Amino acid sequence: xxxxxxxxxxxxxxxxxxDHCHEHTHGDMCHEHPHDHDHDHEHNHEESSESKDEKTxxxxxxxxxxxxxxxxxxxxxxxxxxRAIGKEETxxxxxxxxxxxxxxxxxxxxxxxxx
Length: 115
Prior knowledge:
The chain is α+β, with helices and mostly antiparallel strands. Helix content is 57%, strand content 14%.
């Protein structure tokens, strides 16, 4: 069963053959239930952590794109202000920075597609 968010607590340095508890979050509800690890298959705690990292990375990629876009808006405003005060080279450099951010966003979007 797949959960929205799963938190697993365990101690490193011992093999999980004893009864112990795992804490699971189902939506807004959180509860613990025991797990007996005396069964005939492997149990890997790292899977949940990888899944959590994958979810976090998906969120971060979208956040980074949105964050960069808000900076681009500010940069465009300052391109105009730089031109208004006669700083054409400054305006051109900021425009190049905008192009680089747009390219970075394309790469971040491509990374998101591969998730």
